[in-house]
Structure formats: C-alpha cells, structure tokens
Design goal:
- The protein is an alpha/beta fold and 202 residues long.
- It has six helices and ten strands, in the order αβαβββαββαβαββαβ.
- The strands form two sheets. It has an eight-stranded mixed β-sheet, with helices on both faces.
- Helix 3 links the parallel strand 4 and strand 5.
Length: 202
C-alpha cells in the first residue's frame, strides 16, 4: 500500500487526487488540520492563508486539542481537515464541536475508513481492551467500523448541509449549516434526506 518511491500511503494519494482539483477550498483561508500528516500538510500549508495544526498528543502539532471538547472560539476557522480521526473518538461529540468552530459556510473535510459492504456502522461498547479492539475494529485504538450509513450518521449527528462522497470510499467534504436550520427541517435521522450526497467532480 505504500509507494516504493515516495512512501506515501493510500489516503495521502487519495487526498492528492482530490486536492489537485479542489485546492481552492484551502486557498487563502484559515485552516485547522487535525493529526497532521506530512504528506498532506505539504499541500495544504502553502495554500492556506493561516494554517494551524492540532493533536491530542503534546509535541505532534501546533496546539494540543481534544476534538470532543475544543478549546476554541465559535466560528473561528474557514476550513477544517480531519483525516482518520473520527474512528478513534466519540464522533457525535466531535462533529458537533467541529461544527461549532467552523465559520458559516465553512468546509469540513473528513477522511475515515468505511466498509460499504456493511449497511450499518459497527460499534460495540463492550469492546474496550486493545486486544479486543484490534480483533473487532482492525486497530487497537479504533472504536468503530463505519458502514454505508456514514453519510446519514454525519448528517443526523450534526448540522452540515451536504456530504460530498469521493471514490465511494472514505472521503467527505461537508459544508456548514446552522444548527437552527437543521433542527427545524425534521427529526434528526432523515432531516437531510435528498440533500445529502453529491459526487465530487473528478
């Protein structure tokens, strides 16, 4: 899965394919990048007007932040990039916090492992040890496998107006929408119904 020449992995190459046609998402904007990967950072940072990295582990980024409880002001970033983080955390809490710090009409870009052969996301709160999580979720520090319901899960747990799916696999760009609009539109699970998915323009 790693390139023998540049040593990039699949998700970095997926991002580069998307970035080549969508770099304007970051251009001149205030960007927050969680768990910053070097292969991705080298493209986002030069494009951004202001670039801030964040990680829960001290020393890995510019600031130490818990994605479930962000010590940041409301509507403080134009764009947030979050790659392979949601499968480690309480994603509903994280999505609400990411929405809170995203500016009106800002963009949240997500990448996460998805098994589209499964109808529903698999979670099991009784699976807690590293050994059990490795067996159930493929990594000792993962807490779920996302299934084909990931789009509805994102929409129903937060207030984003649309999720853009690339490659039918693991990459989403979501535009912010006001909490009040989301609540008014319906009862959570189906409130985004026909407005949720559009293909990315590759």
């Amino acid at each position: 899965s790693r390139c023998p020449k540049c040593y990039s992995n699949e998700r970095s190459r997926l991002f580069k394919l998307w970035f080549d046609q969508n770099s304007d998402v970051f251009m001149g904007r205030r960007v927050l990048h969680f768990a910053p990967e070097k292969d991705v950072r080298r493209y986002i940072e030069p494009a951004a007007g202001e670039y801030v990295t964040a990680d829960i582990t001290p020393g890995r980024a510019d600031v130490v932040l818990d994605i479930e409880h962000l010590d940041l002001p409301d509507e403080s970033f134009d764009c947030i990039f979050c790659s392979h983080v949601l499968e480690h955390v309480d994603d509903r809490a994280a999505l609400l916090e990411l929405h809170r710090v995203l500016k009106s009409n800002g963009v949240l870009r997500l990448m996460t492992p998805v098994v589209y052969g499964w109808t529903k996301t698999y979670e099991n709160l009784e699976v807690t040890s590293p050994e059990e999580r490795q067996l159930h979720f493929g990594r000792w520090n993962h807490v779920r496998w996302y299934g084909a319901d990931i789009r509805e899960r994102i929409a129903s747990s937060s207030a984003y107006s649309r999720a853009l799916l690339s490659f039918g696999a693991s990459s989403f760009a979501i535009r912010r929408r006001s909490i009040s609009d989301a609540i008014a539109s319906s009862q959570a699970p189906n409130c985004f119904s026909s407005r949720v998915i559009e293909p990315l323009p590759f």
